[in-house]
Amino acid sequence: MTEQDNTNAENVQEQVRQAVAAGENITREVEQVAREALQTGQLEFARMQRIIESIGRGASAGASEQPDEARSRVNEAFEGLQNAMLHTFESARLATKEQAARAEKFYEQDLKTRLSELRQMESAMLDSLAAAAKSGSDAGTAALDDLVKHARRTGTRLGDEVEHSMQKLAASLPAALKETALAGLGAAREVSARAAEVASGVLSSVAEQLHTRDAGKDDKKDGSDDSQH
Fold first, then answer.
1. How far apart are alpha carbons 9 and 182 in whole angstroms?
2. Basic and acidic residues: which segments have biased composition (predicted)?
3. DSSP string, the chain
4. How confident is the model at residue 42 (pLDDT cuts 50, 70, 90)?
5. Neighbour count for residue 168 (Cβ, 10 Å)
6. Does residue 55 contact residue 16 with C-beta atoms inside 8 Å?
7. How far apart are CA 224 and CA 177, in angstroms?
8. Which of 8, 52, 59, 89 sits CB 3.0–4.6 Å from 128 for a disulfide?
9. Phi-psi region of 24 (alpha: psi -120 to 50; beta: other; left: phi over 0)
10. Per-residue pLDDT tens over the stretch 194-210
11. For the chain, which residues make up each domain, given as ranges?
12. Which of 163, 181, 161, 184 has the alpha carbon at shortest distance from 172?
């Protein structure tokens, strides 16, 4: 990362922190900051991830200034980020579609890379926010961590749009590129959902075992009381 990139990331983080701490029009303010930061001629995946992490750090820091409202403020910031990401995804999708329409075989690998990046935008967003959530242990980072975990289980507006749009885009692509466009769509969400189901099953099993154990203790206690009488 260059010094300029560091400066830009710090500026984004501070702008988001101020917006979230102020608590007025958080979604709109964060969306504006994010769109300006993400605006570029081409999708630069690594740069996008750095910006998202900076937004996450700023949102959690700003939310921590109002601990009682940390969760709601982080949620509002996330909605603003999603709005900006939807705009970024759509711009990148259209650019990729145009490139695919006129590309020769020489550009096939480049197109595959772009399609793969488009497909992974939701996971990249959540991974970057998860990294930001590890930067502290205050109310804001806790709220951000909870938000990311919930989003992995239930999905996001961005993820829904990516899946829908990539399926439409794949229909217009040459056969050699269709598999790249569609590979793994929805898989991460399914894995998260299965993990949640497994965790729920484990917790239910533990609860049942504890209940059975406690019931056994009560039976023994009752038996002991009866023998004393």
1. 32
2. 210-229
3. --HHHHHHHHHHHHHHHHHHHHTSSHHHHHHHHHHHHH--SS--HHHHHHHHHHHHHHHHHHHHTSGGGHHHHHHHHHHHHHHHHHHHHHHHHHHHHHHHHH--GGGHHHHHHHHHHHHTHHHHHHHHHHHHHTT--SHHHHHHHHHHHHHHHH--HHHHHHHHHHHHHHHTS-HHHHHHHHTTTTHHHHHHHHHHHHHHHHHHHHHHHHHHHHHHHHHHHHHHHHHH-
4. low
5. 11
6. yes
7. 74
8. 52
9. beta
10. 444 444 444 344 445 55
11. 3-185, 187-229
12. 181
Structure tokens at 92: 């990148």
Q: What is the separation of C-alpha 113 from the centre of its chain, rounded to a whole number of angstroms?
A: 21
The identity of residue 207, as a single letter, is A
Report the amino acid identity of residue 54. S
- What is the model's pTM? 0.75
Q: Which two tokens stand for residue 141?
A: 């980072």
Q: Give which of 85, 71, 75 is closest to 34, Cα–Cα.
A: 85
* 85-128 pLDDT tens trace: 999 999 888 888 887 777 555 466 777 787 888 889 999 999 99
Report CA-CA distances (Å) from 96 to 92, 116, 118, 154.
6, 11, 9, 28
